[in-house]
Amino acid sequence: MTVSPILSIERGTPAAGQQRTHSHPEPVLLWSATATVLGIAGARDWLIPPGYGLWVPGGVEHGGTVLHDGEMSVIHLDAAHCPITWPAPTGVAVGPLLRELIRHLYGTEPHDPTRTPSEALLFALLAPLATHDIPITVPTDPRARAIAERLLADPADQRELADWADHVHSSVRTLSRLFPTETGLTFAAWRTHARIRAAVPLLATGTPVNTTARAVGYRRPSAFITAFRRITGQTPGIYLPAGS
């Protein structure tokens, strides 16, 4: 008798806000259908926008903040029978086929004859998202953090520091000091890092450079390419899948 590598699948719509840090003895796959989450796992931040997921090995603490509420799934896996053994938290892209496989498995009984081949296909398609690691520090001060979380949720937001100062009931001078003190970057530099970081998974899944540039807040592709090269040392096109 074939033993399923999937213990259970949870599906829900967590409300926007902070989620407590916790761990599971078994590995889990977090998948966002429509939510945007700033996760914390393996001592680093992970931005999980719609259509992406995060593999978390058993025993690794994870938590984070739901920036935009929406549908999410958590797949609990049996480490003894799961074909994936990634030792560290790993980002993944969940395209249309994987999405439908997860939804199909959520709605089927353990003894459904389609379950075993569906599980096999899911794990065959699940692959690490090849991204350049662009670390970004989120401020702890509530005023600066509110701005950072908003920009991580919507990197195309064009508001400048004076606009944000009114929004978070602070001053430009205070915010100008907080960002370098808490992140090591000026506000403008931090926003650029956030935009380039958000661009990488879009490129990695085949989104054209011009479309990606607009999605992360650049009106001119040339400005996006210049910023991308400055931060990563490479051009955006290198992250596009072969044949794109």
UniProtKB/TrEMBL annotation:
Occurrences of domain HTH araC/xylS-type (ranges): 145-242
Lineage top rank: taxon: Bacteria
Presence of the UniProt keyword Metal-binding in the record: no
Keywords tagged on the record: DNA-binding, Repressor, Transcription, Transcription regulation
Gene3D superfamilies reported for this sequence: Homeodomain-like
Organism of this sequence: Winogradskya consettensis
Protein name: HTH-type transcriptional regulator RipA
Pfam families from the UniProt entry: HTH_18
PANTHER family the record matches: HTH-TYPE TRANSCRIPTIONAL REGULATOR NIMR
MF-aspect GO terms: DNA-binding transcription factor activity; sequence-specific DNA binding
